[in-house]
User: What shape does this take?
Amino acid sequence: MAHVELRKVVKRFGSVEVVHGIDLDIRDNEFLVLVGPSGCGKSTVLRMIAGLEPISGGEVFIGDRMVNHVSPKDRNVAMVFQNYALYPHMTVRYNMGFSLKMSGKSRDEIAAKVDEVAGILELGPYLDRKPSELSGGQRQRVAMGRAMVRKPDVFLFDEPLSNLDAQLRTQMRLELRKMHMRLMTTTIYVTHDQIEAMTLADRIVILKDGLIQQVGTPIEVFEKPANVFVARFIGNPPMNILKGTFKVIDGRRCVAAGKSVFPVPAGGDSLGDGDPVLIGIRPDAIKMGDRIEKLPKEWLCRGEVVVSEILGGHSHLEIVVDGENELLAEVEGRVVAHPGEIVPIGFEFDRMVLFDPETKEAIR
Amino acid sequence: MTMTRTSVFGTILLYSTLGLLAVLFLMPAYMAVVTALKLPADISLPSAWELPPVFNWSSFADAAAMLRPNFVNSVILTITATIGSTVLGSLNGYVFSKWKFKGSEVVFTLFLFGMFIPYQVILIPLFQTLRAMNLYGGLPGLILAHIVYGLPITSLIFRNFYSQIPTALIESGRLDGAGFFSIYLRIVFPLSIPGFVVTSLWQFTQIWNEFLWGICLTRHADNPITVGLAQLAGGQAVSWNLPMAGSIMAAVPVLCIYIFLGRYFIRGLLAGSVKE
Assistant: This one.
């Protein structure tokens, strides 16, 4: 059990700097997910915490110990790799017991520990098989088991589910979450999949080009994205971003996008009449059909349905409002709307986010 | 129909060409066998291609008796030098592929240069070095020379072999608490048996067949079999049956190794050439 702290951590490969001074506090027992597009530096950060990549600048603490110059084996961290990195010539039993053997534990102790973890992960019947004789999901479980037997201070996961098919990934995601609730060990998890990030994390760190964009709980980063990048990266389908202008109409603070005008619920005190803004609206904040009845009538507008996709429980609709603003709406149920149909639509304005068109940062 | 006829004709042409070439290729071997089985008196240029009138099996026993010390020398030399250069090459390859350091690519390139230096070029400096080290004349000096000279190729083969082992395995080993040598012994070595087969086959053949250093760097008593063979053929009146029988016997170890381990050799050379 340990908290992990990164202070101004920098990583350079030769003359290229890929991580630009990251500050991050990972609490004891927390499940923290590092998410970002490929090349954002998330794996590099994880590898610096593991000790597999030297730190070019700044400090990394595990517990109260500065570990910049501590070798990986002495950091008491366990890592699950994307391709599992199971030792192909060893049976599952030896794979799982290897770290204990290296730390000089007795044969009986290793056997007991391996059996215990194999029991939790339901790997008992496979202990004498080689990795090549296992399915993808079983290999994944062995990789987790190998990390678990050591009782590490920190678990590190480097895109562990990306080699699995969609169904298995969903199942393993749940198992990972249950495992964390059971073991309560600080976990740092790297992924490029925002759904994994949303479902697994206590807190999410969104990285882009070696810089932290935002740190927050899944709901925080979803509802209050710090900038346009986070707004578009988190959530699927991504947030709609419209160009608009801030206006004061009859003493009410509004934003106008084309012919439509929306009230600004709170924040944005720094804005003046006529200032350009970007308006962020989550697809699920757009309401249609009987859902709009609860919304104030004066703010409804009309949109033309361009495409509608029925996904079963909900539907995705592409709508053009006022003939110029394209919006993607995610609506509950099977809203039957045919392309070309003009329908009334409403918005949950309190979930609207405004961004500065220059800096792309959220206006609070 | 025409197609079939052409393809039959093509097949005949192909196989007769191949057969002809095979005969051509095997002629020296045939010559060696028939000459070895002749009595010295029956050997003459005009009758060189004829089968022996009487089979003289004693050539083999006589040649074996004369070559025994050289054979023993060669066995010692080849086995120790092969093991030495293969094990060291494997460690080098492990470092060059998995523990890269600043400048390791440069060092590796310099290593590769060693492959392109002919034996003859370094003969005199090698002779002087071994003399200075007090190793000239005996087997240990020759063994050392072969180990060092084998390193470029063995390091290259192992480096390429090890670059197929995912680096994550090494990293996983590091996190599991294994160090440089325990990762090598417990993870890398067990995965590199095919690499060892290929490399040691190559080194075995090279060292067993080597002649120039053998004759220049060892005294008579420590001469390897290639030198012994040359001496059998080097007298005033040569009994050609003896060097021929000796050559056949000298070729046996290498032949056997290829027959029993050849499939590993092909597999090893092709490993990683196609995506599996």
